[in-house]
């Protein structure tokens, strides 16, 4: 999905996830704002968050990687 990438639910709020966090399949990782609609992006696997590829507040394209999760 193309839009703006946000790590937290709102300005001044903590991010959904941080590097090193253990994540579960279905856990919300970030929000993509597309045409004024906020879309929650969920993890597709269990694992540990080892890299945050996208930059907070910046546009992302539909095929851009957002995170790297090590199973």
UniProtKB/TrEMBL annotation:
Against CDD domains, the record matches this protein to: biotinyl_domain (cd06850)
Q: What is its main location?
A: plastid
- One of its Pfam families is Biotin_lipoyl
> What name does the UniProt record give this protein?
Biotin carboxyl carrier protein of acetyl-CoA carboxylase
Q: Which GO terms describe its biological process?
A: fatty acid biosynthetic process
Keyword field contains Zinc: no
What is the organism of origin for this protein? Selaginella moellendorffii (Spikemoss)
Record PROSITE patterns: BIOTIN, BIOTINYL_LIPOYL
- Give, as in the UniProt entry, the pathway in which the protein acts: Lipid metabolism; fatty acid biosynthesis
């Amino acid at each position: 999905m193309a839009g703006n990438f946000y790590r937290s639910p709102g300005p001044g709020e903590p991010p959904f996830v941080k590097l090193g966090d253990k994540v579960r399949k279905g856990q919300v990782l970030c929000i993509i704002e597309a045409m004024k609609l906020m879309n929650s992006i969920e993890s597709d696997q269990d694992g540990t968050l080892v890299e945050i590829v996208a930059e907070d507040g910046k546009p992302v394209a539909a095929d851009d990687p957002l995170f790297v999760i090590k199973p």
